[in-house]
């Protein structure tokens, strides 16, 4: 090997060593910078979490009972979505869950809630729905921040108006308008859950859903007063006979087909037969108000003079279900006859 070849080899080797050594120092410096940055971020995160926890303690631990005296206390609650329900009004919405198995409701998660939150829910048959009674007529009273107007007792339909303490009932009119219902899970699809049997009105803000766990939620040997036993034939709210008048089935089928092209109605039932099942189940328990039931007050009749319209022994009422306006007669024997079905035009106008 010549002198120049040896010199070239030595120079090349030294240069490669110097470059590699410099690159190693740069890599080491970069690694140290990344590690330092990570330590700084963790430190800032801990500091932020500490500040948040301190502020939370200040808000919730000012003094025993301080939050109760100073008015409404704000907590970080935001609905996870708005429930679509076949019950468009409070009238007709069941008083308890699972009494109307054909009732459908749909919850779509709001933007910002990861779809992955629903993963695994399909493994359960039922779940709890926690929500706000947003249609309460006395809701504005709660925003005042005091307890004026708070009713300690409410009239119970099953007791024909006898008053019972609010916390011994499931009335929507409570110190905090929070509802809790159990519902069957019909389907889970990406960001949407479809329920059956929910006793929740359309447009309800949902705060949370939790799976129903049979061995803890239904495994206790619970007891209850006699007046809240099952809605059997002896119940004052039981309706033994619900039937459709002649021609109503055909009218219902026609109106149902029309509703499918009306975007405002948004029916949740799959077909007219499913809606008929829903209607019969709803009317099988007396949905009239306590005042209507005890005073037997006639509802305002519609533009059509239906059978029994002038009969003093027959009262006429209407109920809105799944985009349909239903008119029915209630006679003194406790029987119900559905006399007309139309599309709920009013709902379409107010929700367009």
The helicity comes to 25-40%
Biggest β-sheet: strands ordered side by side in the sheet: 1-2-7-6-3-8
Distance between the termini: 93 Å
What is the H/E string?
HHEEEHEEEEEHEHHHEEEH
Report low-confidence residues grouped into runs of 5 or more: 297-305, 348-352
Q: What overall geometry do the principal axes of the alpha carbons give?
A: globular
Profile the largest sheet: 6 strands, antiparallel, barrel
- Report the mean per-residue pLDDT as an integer: 82
> How many beta-strand runs?
12
% residues in beta strands: 15-25%
Structural class: alpha+beta
Q: Total helix count? A: 8
The radius of gyration computed from the alpha-carbon positions, rounded to a whole number of angstroms, is 32 Å
Subunit organisation of the chains: single chain
Provide a brief overview of the structure.
The chain has helices at residues 3-60, 66-69, 139-142, 214-217, 248-259, 272-283, 290-295, 345-350; strands at 81-85, 104-109, 126-132, 153-155, 163-165, 178-189, 192-196, 204-211, 241-244, 314-321, 324-331, 335-343.
Keywords:
352 residues, alpha+beta, 4-stranded mixed beta sheet, 30% helix, globular, disordered C terminus
Topology, pairings included?
Layout: H1 3-60, H2 66-69, E1 81-85, E2 104-109, E3 126-132, H3 139-142, E4 153-155, E5 163-165, E6 178-189, E7 192-196, E8 204-211, H4 214-217, E9 241-244, H5 248-259, H6 272-283, H7 290-295, E10 314-321, E11 324-331, E12 335-343, H8 345-350
Parallel strand pairs: 9-12
Antiparallel strand pairs: 1-2, 1-8, 2-7, 3-6, 3-8, 4-5, 6-7, 10-11, 11-12
